[in-house]
Amino acid sequence: MRRDLAAPETELMEDETETEEGGEGAVIKVPLDTLYKSHGVVAYDIKTNKGAVILPAGVDISLFESSMEIIVDKMREEGIDHVYLNVPQQLSETDINEIIDKVYAGNAEIISKEKAVTVIKGVGSMFNAIREEDISTDIVNQMSNMSADLTEDLVRNPQVAFSLGKVQDADEYTFVHSFNVAVLTGYLTGRIHQGDRDYLQRVVMGGLLHDMGKAKIPLDILHKPGPLSTEEFDVMKKHPNFGVAMALKTGVHDPVIIDIIGGHHEKWSGKGYPKGSKGLTIPESARISAVADVFDALTAKRVYKNSMSSRNAITMILKDSGAHFDAKVARELLVSLGLYPPGSIVALSDGRVGFVVSGGGKDLVRPVILMKNEKEIDIPEFIDLKNEPNLCIAQYIGHSEKRDLGYARLSLPTKPAERRPL
Ligand SMILES: [Fe+2]
Predict the structure, then answer these.
(1) Are 163 and 110 in contact (CB under 8 A)?
(2) Assigned domain for 243 exists
(3) Would you give the DSSP letter of residue 351?
(4) Number of folded domains in the chain?
(5) Which residues lie at CB < 5 A from ion ligand 1?
(6) How far is the CA of 239 from the centre of ligand 1 (A)?
(7) Which domain holds residue 47?
(8) pLDDT tens sequence across 359-401
(9) How far is the CA of 183 from the centre of ligand 1 (A)?
(10) How many Å lie between the centroid of ligand 1 and the Cα of residue 180?
């Protein structure tokens, strides 16, 4: 019979506890087979059946390098098959940024930062024009050209998660969010409808325009740093219909685009808005954009809330599928990003720490990982867990998932007093 003397009283290691940046580190479960190549400090006393200590808590296992074989044999005799190690190392902000730079440098086909900024500024100009009541077909054509351009990238780019932008402040939220929703909606649609480039371009355009009706929402409600009151939410709920009216007025009649603008807040249960449509009566493009919309909102950092990791956002969306979301689309989000989505920071079973750079495809727990290499930081080491049967992810540490686009703030009206009446 197996004994688990090395384990703590409660099984808190196997949960999804996230360590804050700059925190104490992570406790990971290490099989005895890989202990000899692991790093870290023994987390709990390891004792024999009779209570004699084999390895005390707090000891660095590297000290036992020469006698590791004897210690491992002793533990096996005692029926112990794994130990818990404290891995004190944590990636600093600088480490993460260096790693992210490497990921971008190695993936020329990712949507470029310049292109992302151009598109986000395009969305900002569209909002500005709506607020100034100066929206023209030129602006819509510009958005259409941008959609075509993004679609080209989406067809080629497998690393969509790293194409999403981080929000700097409240003013920019809607514009960055529109870009992210366009990219994610296109990505998910591309996976569901493989090869249909024309449809893909139309949903990308729908994503860019999906919140255009928010340009008619008072800025004190739109930028409110916290939850909305019932009255404020009632005003906010008008944005899909405002958007549809605005799109039709500017010559956008494509039903796929209109469905996204008007239907991205509908829920599978029928409890969404504005129509309260239910299940498959909600157009597919709207059901896909609803998942993209909430995923990006959950993973965004705002003044009043921290960003949720993609991993937790996927879990939340899956739990809510069948009520809020189409289960088929929610599953596609999981399968395409994996249980450790790109941007996750993880500790491997040998104690090393790395950064997930791409999903594992069909194998949701075996992604490709860029290792933190302390000695030769300029030589990136990628580990594809699919090719490493003896290694696995032992601990999810945290996340750093969206890139800092660092663009200049757009010159848009920011005070409610400067707003034109609805
Ligand atoms: Fe919306």
Answers:
(1) yes
(2) yes
(3) S
(4) 2
(5) 211
(6) 7
(7) 12-87
(8) 656 677 788 888 876 555 556 678 888 888 888 888 887 776 6
(9) 15
(10) 13
